[in-house]
Specification:
This protein is mainly α. It has a domain of 53 residues. Helix content is 69%, strand content 4%. It has a two-stranded antiparallel ribbon. A hairpin with a 2-residue loop joins strand 1 and strand 2. Helix 1 runs parallel beside helix 4 and helix 3 runs antiparallel to helix 4. The chain starts with a helix and ends in a 5-residue tail after the last strand.
Length: 105
């Protein structure tokens, strides 16, 4: 029995890590697909708002917490912060007429 506990703990850690990786990949893929399929001059802010809604953030936060991994909350904060920063780049006026509002294409 003593040998099975470390195996169970390792298995749980691998499963939790896999779940975190899948959640992060799904979020990244969704944002990438949204930006890849929409014309650059479209209302990107609306698309990001739809994909990165408070409801979706809550679902993902719950998925991270459900893994039971000690660092799940911290990992979620890092992922959410990175996606928030990327989403902010798609804010109102980020793209006007196919070029950045700052004048850079």
């Amino acid at each position: 029995m003593a040998n099975t506990l470390p195996q169970r703990a390792r298995r749980r850690a691998w499963l939790a890590g896999g779940a975190l990786a899948i959640a992060a990949a799904a979020t990244g893929a969704g944002l990438w697909l949204a930006s890849a399929t929409a014309p650059r001059c479209s209302d990107g802010a609306a698309a990001v708002t739809e994909l990165w809604s408070p409801a979706r953030q809550g679902e993902l936060a719950a998925a991270f917490a459900a893994t039971g991994v000690v660092h799940a909350a911290n990992t979620w904060r890092l992922v959410a912060g990175a996606v928030d920063a990327r989403a902010a780049a798609w804010g109102p006026g980020a793209w006007v007429g196919g070029s950045a509002a700052s004048g850079r294409a």
